[in-house]
Design brief:
This protein has 144 residues and is α/β, with parallel strands linked by helices. It contains six helices and five strands. Helix 1 packs across helix 5, helix 2 packs across helix 3 and helix 4 packs parallel to helix 5.
Length: 144
């Protein structure tokens, strides 16, 4: 299951991504926001992160105006590896090498077609393990 969330600056792109996920037959849970009324991105980042950390969802997509705020907020949560991505190569590599469990996108900086390509690249990628696992273990030890 994929967790998805946004603030008011990312709601239009979030809705487009939801349609894309539906068309691909992928299960997701929408953690809001559900309107363009001004709201605080950390609240939605935390809801998505909590769903991943608890095991309710396997991975997540967060959207705000730039993707930066969401990535900063998400990375404050133990167990989360969130990457702000703006291209398909980074989206694929953040899963293959960093085992990122969330990608963050910016509605105001990434066009819809590219955003869907990024989401697809991330969702199709698989963590390669091996030498990368040692690095992930080291990184996660910083949170203890």
């Amino acid at each position: 299951m994929i967790a998805i969330g946004c603030d008011h600056g990312g709601i239009n792109l979030k809705e487009i991504i939801k349609k894309f996920l539906e068309e691909k037959g992928l299960e997701f849970k929408d953690f809001g926001t559900y309107s363009t009324d001004s709201c605080d991105y950390p609240d939605y980042a935390k809801a998505v992160c909590d769903a991943i950390v608890s095991g309710e969802c396997e991975k997540g997509i967060l959207v705000c105006g730039t993707g930066i705020g969401m990535s900063i907020a998400a990375n404050k949560i133990d167990g989360i590896r969130a990457a702000h991505v703006t291209d398909t190569y980074s989206a694929r590599m953040t899963k293959e090498h960093n085992d990122a469990n969330i990608i963050c996108l910016g509605e105001r900086i990434t066009g819809c077609d590219l955003a869907l390509e990024i989401v697809n690249a991330y969702l199709c990628a698989e963590f390669q393990g091996g030498r990368h696992q040692k690095r992930i273990d080291k990184l996660m030890s910083f949170q203890k």
